[in-house]
């Protein structure tokens, strides 16, 4: 179990770095958006490329930040039922839901996203808009983002199994108190 917990810490560290990087994309999007607006209003010059890079970067924030959001237990959930359960029962419910819902969804999106990326890559797909950008980088974010999310789901399962087995702290304690050390 200790080797699995080490794997969980590795996945957490990778997704934390990627998630923190994704959070800085917000600033880049704001700067590009503001710069584009200033240039458009003052110089009467517009570029579809600037508009497209904004939605590419928004996609990167969402897709690369999803696993980090799951790690920090900040994803949307309905606690109506689980809040009435013991911590161990909550951990079991999280494991079951991850296996039954998160993993299949991630798998399907990866399975369909990879061929889409390969088609865009091999064809050199470009935006149909004048001055638009190549499409494969943003399409590649789909399988990458959902692979990271699936890996984080595995990490969450490992942490909850460790908690149930009594060899790891309750993963929700960390989520409730962000200053607590990671097990």
Please provide a written account of the structure:
The chain is an all-alpha fold and 183 residues long. It has one domain. Helix content is 75%, strand content 0%. The protein contains five helices and no strands. The chain has helices at residues 2-42, 48-71, 87-123, 136-165, 171-176. Helix 1 packs antiparallel against helix 2 (48-71), helix 1 runs antiparallel to helix 4 and helix 3 (87-123) runs antiparallel to helix 4. The radius of gyration is 20 Å and the shape is elongated. The two termini are 13 Å apart. The relative contact order is 0.17. The mean pLDDT is 88.
Strand content: under 5%
Rg is 20 Å
- Give the CA-CA distance, first to last residue: 13 Å
Total discrete domains = 1
Please tag this protein with its features.
183 residues, mainly alpha, 5 helices, elongated
Quick synopsis:
By secondary structure, the protein is mainly alpha-helical. Helix content is 75%, strand content 0%.
């Amino acid at each position: 179990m200790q080797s699995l917990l080490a794997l969980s810490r590795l996945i957490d560290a990778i997704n934390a770095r990627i998630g923190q990087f994704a959070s800085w994309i917000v600033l880049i999007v704001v700067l590009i958006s503001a710069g584009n607006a200033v240039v458009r209003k003052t110089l009467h010059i517009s570029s579809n490329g600037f508009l497209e890079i904004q939605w590419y970067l928004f996609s990167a924030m969402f897709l690369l930040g999803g696993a980090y959001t799951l790690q920090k237990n900040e994803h949307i959930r309905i606690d109506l039922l689980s809040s009435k359960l013991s911590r161990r029962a909550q951990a079991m419910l999280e494991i079951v839901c991850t296996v039954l819902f998160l993993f299949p969804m991630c798998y399907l999106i990866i399975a369909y996203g990879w061929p889409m990326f390969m088609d865009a890559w091999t064809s050199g797909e470009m935006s149909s808009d004048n001055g638009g950008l190549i499409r494969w980088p943003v399409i590649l974010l789909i399988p990458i983002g959902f692979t990271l999310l699936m890996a984080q789901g595995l990490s969450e399962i490992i942490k909850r199994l460790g908690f149930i087995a009594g060899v790891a702290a309750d993963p929700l304690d960390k989520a409730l108190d962000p200053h607590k050390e990671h097990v």
